[in-house]
Amino acid sequence: NAGLDKAVAWLEPLKEANPSISYADLYTLGGVVAIRTLGGPEVPWRAGRVDSMSPSDVTPDGRLPGADNGSYEKDSGHLRDVFYRMGFDDQEIVALSGAHALGRCHADASGFVGKWTPTPTTFNNLYFVVLKNNAWEEGCVKGETCKNHQYRDVEGQ
User: Fold this and answer.
1) Mean model confidence pLDDT for the chain
2) Distant-in-sequence, close-in-space partners of 134: CB < 8 Å, separation ≥ 6
3) Is 82 within 8 Å of 97 (Cβ atoms)?
4) What is the DSSP string of 71-96?
5) What is the four-CA torsion angle of 44, 50, 56, 62, rounded to 10 degrees?
6) pLDDT in tens, 48-103
7) For the chain, how are helix, strand and coil distributed in percent, rounded to 5?
8) With contact defined as beta carbons under 8 Å apart, do 99 and 117 qualify?
9) Domains defined for the chain, CATH in brackets
10) Where are the residues of the annotated region Disordered (predicted)?
11) CA-CA distance, 102 to 19, in Å (whole number)?
């Protein structure tokens, strides 16, 4: 979640103006509003989450998948290990991966560079279309400097 501090800072004025909402509710509501604003489905949402300051109530670091384990076999196995542990099946893992249609990689946050689709501010299925239909090669996106091993399409995007 490197880079999440920007979203947190953006939501802080809303928290100050509405002190009765928990941070947990504010952040989840922000996600629901973002999905809808970017053309995604209407996601049901209910208030009632309670914030906690106890470290024992927080999920330990390292429970989410890493970005690169060196090979397809290691990456796919790692994804399955992580998400199976949380009760997800392969279909649900693929559905969650569709969130990559939004946003981009930032070198300062992850060491990776570039957007995943030509429309990074639109909620759609282009992540899967691009992944399946484009030809890929090792290398950084044209005009960028990579810190990590990554792939780009043969057009350099």
Assistant:
1) 84
2) 153, 154, 155
3) no
4) SHHHHHHHHHHHHHHTT--HHHHHHH
5) 30
6) 999 998 888 877 766 666 666 666 566 778 888 888 988 999 999 888 888 888 88
7) 45, 5, 50
8) no
9) 4-57 (1.10.520.10), 72-153 (1.10.420.10)
10) 47-71
11) 30
